[in-house]
Amino acid sequence: MALRLIADFDLEKDVLPWLRVQLAASAAAGARGGGPGVLENNYECLRVLNVERNRNIIYTYKDNKGNVFFGLYDYQTKQNEHLYTFEKDLQVVSCSVNKEKTLLATSLVQAAKEGRSNELQPGSKCLTLLVEIHPINNVKVLKAVDSYIWVQFLYPHVESCPQPKNHLLLLSEEKYIEQFHIQVVQEDGNRVVIKNSGHLPRERIAEDFVWAQWDMSEQRLYYIDLKKSRSVLKCIQFYAEEHFNLMFEAPLDISLSDSGFKLVNFGYSDLQDKEELSEHLTLCVFTNHTGSLCVCYCPNFDSWEQITYSVFYFHKGHSKTFTTTLGSVDSHVTKGITFLNLDYYVAVYLPGHFFHLLNIQHPDLICHSLFLTENSEVIDMLPHSPLQSLSGSLVLDSRSGKLYRVLLNQSYLVEFLRSARLDCERMALLHCALSHGRDPRRLEAKIIQWISENISACHSFDLIQEFIIASSYWSIYPETSNMDKLLPYSSLLTWDTEIPGITLVTEEIPLPLMKVHSFKGYWEKLNSNLEYVKYSKPHLHYNNSVVRREWHNLISEEKTGKRRSTVYVRNILDNAIKVISNVEAKNLEPRLTPLFQEEDTHQQLLIGLMVSELREHLLRHLQGVEKKKIEQMVLDYVSKLLDLICQILEASWRKHNLHPWALHFNRQASAAEFAVFHIMTRILEATNTLFLPLPPGFHTLHMILGVRCLPLHNLLHYIDHGVLLLTEAAVTRLMKDLDNTEKNEKLKFSIIMRLPPLTGQKICRLWDHPVSSNIISRNHVKRLLQNYNKQPWSSVMDKSSFSVEFLPLNYFIHILTDIESSNPALYAFEGHDNVDAKFVEEAALKHTAMLLGL
Questions:
Q1: pLDDT tens per residue across span 725-757
Q2: Whole-angstrom Cα distance, residue 271 to residue 93?
Q3: Whether 68 contacts 92, CB under 8 Å
Q4: How many Cβ atoms are within 10 Å of 407's Cβ, its own excluded?
Q5: Measured on CA atoms in the order 504, 506, 512, 518, is the torsion positive or negative?
Q6: How far apart are CA 620 and CA 629, in angstroms?
Q7: Per-residue pLDDT tens for 127-173?
Q8: Cα Rg for the chain, rounded, in angstroms?
Q9: CB-based burial of residue 299 (10 Å sphere; 0-12 exposed, 13-18 middle, 19+ buried)?
Q10: Using CA atoms in the order 543, 545, 548, 553, what is the torsion angle rounded to 10 degrees?
């Protein structure tokens, strides 16, 4: 399954055995009123009421006498506690316990039984109580009204000693929210009582709201009120010491005027299934630590033929509305749609019909989100009962009484990657797996294995490109915020292909209006995201365009001999040395591939330039981050790029059982070498498009495999089109290893003719052959004549001791002799070991005759 559910709590396993022991002890002691009565076999009376910020779980049980028992499961100690028992047949609407477990707040209604008189206060439908439970003592009536009330204690972000004041939220069905301030004192040792219980301070913090959601982990209250029939989302952040702030207001383009009244994450009760509390819409707010703010909305669907739902990506400034047609309209497996918060993703789930995994960090391209439909594994992925998505990827199945942690199943994602048939599915699965990689090295190895087996499977994007960019991005993303704005996430900029089974409409939306001016933590990141949407046009993602231009300039200068400042070039090469050392230091196993064994100046310049430009890019846009940390992030990022390429090559070599000593020119290439050559060519193609560096030695290895695997005309075609590069190391090895058969002479001559002049002169000295002698002699003569000043005929002839009948050659020899004798140290002949003097004479004569047209 794409999602993995880990049960953190189960009523049947974690509470029921303890409850049986308590009931047995009570029955044996003949206790009355101090605990629940006899436990019957019908366990439906045992259910979860609330989950607090510290993950303590409040549950209730009604015994055979109708007494209401409140218990608490401590998430840290895994122990159960009895909190309180009401000896009346009541139905619980809501319940909450303060952090110190000294106060219990609850709202109750009369149990629906015929002929039963009202056991609550006359004229009231709902009674809200505050109970001292350390030890059990006084009961304070907070509300006795004819409308439902929900309660929730605040848990301030303070881990110190118990707080003298407690703060309690009351939400009324009459659409107002109040906050009570409750001061407690200790009496008679550890006994905790309410101070001035007759006059508890309170304040109204919201009115006329139609929807509210509680974020227990972050202590935030989201609510929607209607202003002139327009929905406005607001958020209150609660702090310690009675302090709270209205953080933002955001207009929502949804209609809630006729949707009734809805609460999210204020506990669970049977009342939520009743008509009074509308289930006609599903609306959730999700955030994560990166500063994202998403509102997920699904209106009441009138028919089961299709479903429409929207996601408002406020941190990106746009919304997306999705419409999907249901495959089987008869299978009504659930009341509505479920939204789940999965950190970097939001899951939209309708059991038996579809599963949509939405990428909320990078929602621009629909191919980065996974949509599955009519799949047997999707149908049974999650329980079919209603689920509550709590903070921190927690999900409560209130009907079964189970609390789950929902995680993306990495193993399933990789396996599904192997069987996926659509490019959009492969793209989404690749990113999803990398974003939740708990063992990156092992995960990368699995993905590389799949890539090597499906190198040509994708037609909409380059698999190697996407893997390198995405994996490098996720390796450094957790280091600091705003990386999603500064580093490329994908090799694609657009996606025009439709996703089968779903249609999409994207619209710009108004940004939230921040109501405070000083931000910390999550709010600072959200504000940064909003500022980026407002002012950062175009996008700030790094690309190698500047590196490409500067690298070409340096290579051109090298060819013309006009190299700029030595210090500048030295600094660039030092950057490359640091990266290469970093890559080698992180490699724990000996390499099979002969990489990093030569000084590839061109690739080192490219590596060093990328380090320099990326560092400047991040220093320019990452405010408040230490320069040393940025330099380390850049070093790690560029190292990761090279390491991934090395991993792909290593995996290919291991798969085909190749070894460095197998690469000899005097052997016929094997099928394994053909496969590795193909992989290397695809790597080269992928990196060239993005202008990414390659590990030094890559081009030499690629060239050697090309000579072994390709016919001569194909080889020269690859060389002429820049696919194979004639590195000095590769050509040197070729000249030394190959003998001078006719076939090899043709190959050597073809390659020498394609070498740059300086490299060609070096290589010719290694080949003992008339052709190399010809080239050496011509280059030497050219060098002598470059600065020649013509002298009178007589002065030259006087110095000559030669007597050759062919006068042009005689004159030419005199000139060369004169130049060499004028400065022997400057014009000393190099490479004479491979020069045949008679051949030089014949070659010079022939060349002169050709020039004279004889």
A1: 998 888 888 888 888 788 888 888 888 888 887
A2: 7
A3: yes
A4: 15
A5: positive
A6: 14
A7: 999 999 988 888 999 999 989 999 999 998 766 566 778 999 999 99
A8: 39
A9: middle
A10: -140
